[in-house]
Amino acid sequence: MTFLEISVCAVLPLLALIYVFTLVAGDGQATDFETALYSAGDAVRRGENPYPTADDPMFLRGLAYVYPPLTAIVSVPFTLLPVGAAGIAVMVLLTAGVAATLLALGVRDWRCYGLAYAWPPVFSAIQTGNVTIPLALCAALAWRFRTRAWGAGASIGLGLAIKLFLWPLTVWLAASRRYAEALVSIVVASVLLVLSWAVIGFKGFREYPHLLDRLEDLLGAEAYTVYALGLDLGLSSGAARALWIALGVVLLALVVVMARRGDERRAFVLALAATLACTPLVWLHYFALLLVAVAISEPRLGPAWFVPLAMYLSTATHNGTTFQTILTIAVAALTVAVALRPAWPRRHAVLAPSSSAAGGRP
């Protein structure tokens, strides 16, 4: 180990985690968890509606619960703890979730783990206490067990039930002619969504689509999206939206092209890129999903692991200045581009599909 390796891959991430945990344990808070998930879980525990009204001040500030019901239900046990202690517990679980994601993808290089925790999107996801890391783990398991209908399909289905924006991964399954896996993902997601809505008595169900539309109207211009960037650059709302849709369509088309060519690694990386490109609201922590793209392309330390460090210039809340929006989107695009390049001959092969969590090869 060199001094540079220790400094960048060990000291920097350790300082980042210490800062995040100290901030929350002090006068800060695990924002998304404490303001949205904890209150939603408490509402479910008391038999109340976990969803806000469209004129709720917390909703208007983008701080209310807007996920499907499953996350609120899973949050119920944490409401038995004081909110601060529950926030710390969630952060610890999310910290472990990052390691679990990399382990599932066969990453064994300790330097990759260090850099992962140093990524601004990753420690933002930990600090805010939201579902991005669990979604990354679902995506990682889908790749790991991609030849098993109940492995890949159930992983993506669970992710969809947590947050619908993983839907491009179902497109990837279908494009790869994994029709059984794609069907399983839809069935699992549908069952979990129906059951979770049933658990809360379908409270808020009728208003939920309007709530999401209203949230997009409120915050769409403040996100790390091509739509928001178009508005910043002076495009009309219609032109900016057309540009955003065009990017999503192009990426999904590339997923299909690569999958039909049998290049499943690139198809999956592009599906992850499409996941980020197609969602109308993207915050800094969403880019933690790129951990999966980088890990399957570079299971050992390589250039792609360093690219997201440039997001230290980004803002964690909303999208900051036009420069910060351009920078963040460009860094994400560069990360994807580096992950798409041909694998180096000296590198380990991409983890083979597995039928067991232990990583056995078929």
Q: What's the quick description here?
A:
By secondary structure, the protein is mainly α. It is built from 17 helices and no strands. Helices cover 64% and strands 0% of the residues.
Element string (H = helix, E = strand): HHHHHHHHHHHHHHHHH
Give the domain tally: 1
**Structural class by sheet pairing and helices:** mainly alpha
Largest sheet: none
Uncertain segments: 345-351, 355-362
Large-scale geometry: globular
Fraction in helix = 55-70%
Distance between the termini: 35 Å
Give the mean pLDDT: 91
Instruction: Tell me the β content.
Output: under 5%
Report the count of strand segments.
0
The radius of gyration computed from the alpha-carbon positions, rounded to a whole number of angstroms, is 20 Å
Number of helices: 17
Write the layout of secondary structure elements.
Elements: H1 3-25, H2 31-45, H3 57-60, H4 69-75, H5 83-104, H6 110-118, H7 120-128, H8 132-144, H9 149-162, H10 167-175, H11 179-199, H12 208-219, H13 226-232, H14 237-260, H15 264-278, H16 290-297, H17 322-340
